[in-house]
Amino acid sequence: MTANIITASGARNPEPVLVLAEFETPKQLMSAAEKVRDGGFNHWDCHTPYPVHGLDQAMGVRPTLLPWVVLAAGATGCIGGLAMQWFMNATDLSILFIGYPYLVSGKPFWSIPANIPVAFELTILLSAFGAFFGMLIFNGLPRFHRPHFRSERFRRATDDRFFIAIDKRDRHFDPESNAAFLEGLGANSVEVIEE
Amino acid sequence: MAHTPIDITTENRSLGTLASGWITAGALLAVIGVLGTLLLGNLEGAFEDLGPAHHSSGTEGAAAEGHSQGPGGHGESHGFISEWSIYHPYLVSACFFLTITLGALFFVLVHHITRAGWSTALRRIAEGISRNFVLMLILFIPILMPGGMDHLYKWLNPDPGDALIGVKESYLNYDWFLIRIAAYFVIWIGVSTYFHRKSVAQDSSGDESLTVHLGALSPVAVILFALSITFAAFDLLMSLDAHWFSTIFGVYIFAGSVLSFHAVLALTVLWLQSRGRLTRAVTPEHLQDVGKMMFAFTVFWAYIAFSQYMLIWYANIPEETVWYLRRQSTWLWGFWGWLMVLGHFLVPFLFLLSRHIKRRKTTLVVGAIWVLAMHWCDMYYLVMPQINGGGEFPFRMLDVTILIAMGGLYLIGMALALRGNSLVAEGDPKLPESLVFENV
Amino acid sequence: MKDLKGFINPNLTPGWESPETLNTWDKPGSRTPLIGAGNTDATVTEKVCRVIEGPPTIGWIIFFLISASALSLLGILVPYLIFTGVGVWGVNNPVGWGYAIVNFVFWVGIGHAGTLISAILFLFRQKWRTSINRAAEAMTIFAVICAGLFPGIHVGRVWFAYWMFPIPNQMELWPNFRSPLLWDVFAVGTYFTVSLLFWYMGMLPDLASVRDRAKEKIRKVAYSVLSLGWTGSNRQWHNYERAYLLLAALATPLVLSVHSVVSFDFAISQVPGWHSTIFPPYFVAGAIFSGFAMVMTLVVPARHLFGLKDVITMRHLENMNKIIMVTGMIVGYAYLVEFFIAWYSGNEVEKFTFLNRALGPYAWAYWIMVSCNVLTPQIFWFKKMRTNLKVMFIVSIFVNIGMWFERFVIVISSLANDYLPSAWDYYRPTIVDVGILIGSFGLFFTLFSLFCRFLPFVAMYEVKGVIAGQEHAERQEESAGSSTEEGASPATAMT
Q1: Mean pLDDT, to the nearest integer, of C5-21?
Q2: Do A116 and B306 touch (CB under 8 A)?
Q3: Pick from B185, B285, B367, B429: CA 20 to 30 A from residue C234's CA?
């Protein structure tokens, strides 16, 4: 069995950009991933229909920095929320806009308990933005064009098949030897995408 | 990726010689505490006035009240005792340990009702701690004596013309109070003993139907638990000021109970591990979950405490606000309130946020001790500002010595309940699941 | 006792059950698989995607048309209200908060189950949530949309609704941040936004599944855009899972805060029957209670219509019934404590308010509330009833009714008879009130039926993860079988 070559239809000088290997089960994928990791590859990835437990170690993925992004966003929300309420309701400072302290049923202009709910909600809101948009940015989403999508087989990556993809940026990228290597790891099929 | 299950029979899972060590240490603490109480109490004059309180004269108490910064004015009847007595620190300590024991009972019940897996390895320790209700009953007897009650609860001998207490007389009277307290302890002792005994019986028989049986019983037990802890909180702590009321008060005590119990659980397990017990049956995964529960209930406590404060503060109705006013009118009690906000919530919240803190033993111990100390401060905050309308700061060495004495007795109680049986519910069919459990 | 035998040996389950209930039985030492046997990754994708790929069924069309016509009621009555003024409602002098606020609190409450299922049960490692969380989250968002409608139209001059937000305006005035009604704006706004993010993020991998199966061009483009180019790469999953965990951890305090803030609307006031410190947790429990009931109302027919019976199994439904029962009892606890403290406080007005609720002009509403919320769920003590589809559907309807009436009792009875007897009046809704309530149900069901048609009803990737876990556990049980038995044997080597 040799690797299938899929060439982009409009390409002038097609050259290989991606090697895709399909596996049947997560177990096969896991052991293959360990071999690929040990082979010293640096621009490669696994594609699975659901997060496979333990694959992070098998691939050697470093822990994400996302929690720190969320913490920073939350702290901004909390401090920003308190500052906003203080500026708007308790001062007549003029910074871009003008604060307007006004008396409502004799309540103090500034009193922490009454300002906690809004500060809390803004903390959560900004933290959630941090988590969601941070995830998108770290994952490089949205990105609609990917060489993967040229493969018919790859459609099953979101259904019930498991893939390993080696990108052309990888220091060991070499379609032929990569394909042979992946095939040796028990891949169902190996495809090379050219663009 | 799961751990390979350990063979439980190879684990050191009996209290063994540690039991006598705990009993000796407990006895030593109890003796130190009692002697300290007697000596220092004598120095501080705590025993001079153990007869029936003479607050009913009305003039003396009210006059003292009027001079203080407290909210009560001249001649106005108030629903709380304004004189310090030895029963006040006693009640603080007793409630401190009672709430821990209640938390232990809740842990056992909620384990059964949810058919939890992870907590099986820790359940026996919780069951052992929950057996301390018997000790708590003994410790509560001095308070329940008419002399003790008289120094704590104004409603026993209200000021003449106190219509507000008059309205509640059919609920707040000595006989009915005793009957209720007895009922609570019957429930607590009964449920904790039953669940502990059946669990121990399963150790040797491995009878799976016991798990089913306790699971089927737990919803009823939880209902009894919820009602008893609520009304116990109303009776023992809320009625210290018989005029004041708050519907959330039972939930507030519940939150503190579960929080403090998880701290005690962490400390107990880590102590056992440092003495070579349960070193492999209890993994960092379990400790992390205990830490998570501490974190969760720190937040829950803060939520309940804030809800109560916010609603009373904002509505500003005198009959409710007076309770917080008493706790804010002097700088010392005001400081104590900030201690609650920062020490009981913010510090443990930030500290326990990281998973590494929860998984490392030393940091978890620090967190647990901190949480317990804050829980004691919380109990102190509920009881002590009643004295003299919050006008004085009544800290005496007795606060510490009584706590030490009760702590010693509590340790003895734990040793008695845990010795002789395995420290793990080893007949439980869910134990294998618990032993290999890991946080994802 | 029959029940107990069944737990130990599934073969002894009594004959009155359908085979569907089989997976609700557990042997104490093991966990019965959640997802029906014979399901693989491929069948889950197939079953869930089939619902949105095929032509609409007759049942769906009828349901959609009914919902849409109820929605059209909203389209007529809301402009009528805006052009005429809130006088078209039944609000009168003491009762300034009529149906609008009742409906608002009701719908916000319904919106709590989704986040509970997706966030809190996630943190508690309750794997059964995976089959129902998508639908519940969708329901949450639609319920919050319905809820947001009511304060919007209740402000009277709708075109000034933006004054609720801290937007610079020509008067150089800012919102009053000390007002609980403003806290509501922030709480409900944040809740809607975060729920939407959570829901959408959870859907990304499934939208990619739909994209990869799409045949027609339009479909493919639409789902490509929606799924943002998701490829299921493990480096993406890594960030994704962490983001999901963080969002769950954030949504948990959020869901508690939202209904707490709603309860502050009432509880910080001095109106008798409203000012009670237990309101925040009590409202939250009630919200979860009603939300779960609504999920039940929607899921029982949906799993039947869409052929998802072995993905949303009887075990899922039974667990939901248990939560309905627990939260129902927490609500009952709150009723009891409130009643007791109303007496204990010695406050005459407070005492009167509670007696008036039970015995006064609104006693009918009060007893509907008590019987629906506290008594009806008690039937779930019996396993036979917990696993009976008809019973659970009927109970869920009762709970929905009861929880609507709870808000009715709180809002109306306290306002109608407060401190000033000379101002007392009896509140009667008008036809517009009722029409807008029905219209809000129309909006809710229309949105929900559109969701069923165009978006994956079940979180496929999460269910696949559960199936993988089940297989993993089975393998482990086989290999660990010997050591387990040793562990259960009497302790001999105590040291």
Answers
A1: 47
A2: yes
A3: B285
Q: Mean per-residue pLDDT for C228-256?
A: 90
Residue B49 above 70 pLDDT? no
Whether A54 and A27 have beta carbons less than 8 Å apart is answered as no
Residue B64 has pLDDT above 60, yes or no: no
Would you state the structure tokens that stand for residue B135, as one six-digit string?
Answer: 């000790």
Selecting from B1, B314, B440 the residue whose C-beta is nearest the C-beta of A114 gives B314
CA atoms within 13 A on the CB side of B62: 15
Contact at CB, B5 and C344, closer than 8 angstroms? no
Residue pair A93/C172 in contact by the 8 Å Cβ criterion = no
Instruction: Kindly determine whether residue C231 and residue A157, on different chains, have CB atoms separated by under 8 Å.
Output: yes
Which whole number is the average pLDDT over C164-178?
86
Which strands, in side-by-side order, build the sheet including A44-47? A4-7, A189-194, A16-23, A162-167, A44-47
To which residue do tokens 């009875």 refer? C413
- Most B CBs within 10 Å: which of C130, C260, C337, C348, as the mutation test of the B interface? C337
Q: What's the predicted TM-score (pTM) here? A: 0.91
Placement of tokens 């069948």 in the chain: C43
Query: CA triplet C353, C359, C365: central angle to 5 degrees?
Result: 90
H-assigned helices in C306-388: 314-344, 348-359, 363-370, 383-386
Give B75's pLDDT tier (boundaries 50, 70, 90).
low
B422 in contact with chain C, both atoms CB, cutoff 8 A? yes
Rounded CA Rg of chain B: 22
What's the ipTM? 0.91
Q: Contact, B123 vs B130, CB < 8 A?
A: no
The letter for the amino acid at C299 is V
Q: What sign for the dihedral angle of Cα B264, B270, B276, B278? A: positive
* C88/chain B closest Cα distance in angstroms: 32
Q: Where are the domains of chain B?
A: 25-44+74-158+171-435
* Cα A60-A64-A70 angle, rounded to 5 deg: 170
> Mind telling me how many Å the CA of C381 is from chain A's nearest CA?
37
pLDDT value, residue A2: 63
Domains and CATH numbers, chain C: 56-454 (1.20.1630.10)
Using CB atoms and an 8 Å cut-off, which of residues 22-61 of chain A contact chain B?
53-54, 57
What is the tens place of the pLDDT at every residue in A85-142? Answer: 999 988 888 888 888 888 888 888 888 889 999 999 999 999 999 999 999 999 888 8
Query: Of A54, A57, A113, which has the smallest distance from its Cβ to B309's Cβ?
Result: A113
The domain segmentation of chain A, as residue ranges, is: 1-47+165-195, 66-138
Q: Do B314 and A116 touch (CB under 8 A)?
A: no
Q: What is the pLDDT of residues A57-81, one digit of tens each?
A: 888 888 888 999 999 999 999 999 9
Contact between C452 and C306 under an 8 Å Cβ cutoff? The reply is yes
Q: Which chain B residues contact residue C125 at CB under 8 A? A: 440
Nearest-10 crossing angle of helices C389-408, C99-110:
140
Collect all residues with Cβ–Cβ distance below 8 Å to B343 and sequence separation of at least 6: B370, B374, B377
Residue of B nearest to C323 (CA): B114
Mean pLDDT calculated for residue range B233-240: 94
**Of B41, B52, B54, whose CA–CA distance to B82 is shortest?**
B54
**In this model, does residue A11 exceed pLDDT 80?**
no
pLDDT for residue C278:
93
Gap from A177 CA to chain C (nearest CA, Å):
23
Q: Choose between C448 and A147: higher pLDDT.
A: C448
Per-residue pLDDT, C479: 58
Helices marked H in chain A: 26-38, 55-59, 66-90, 112-138, 175-184
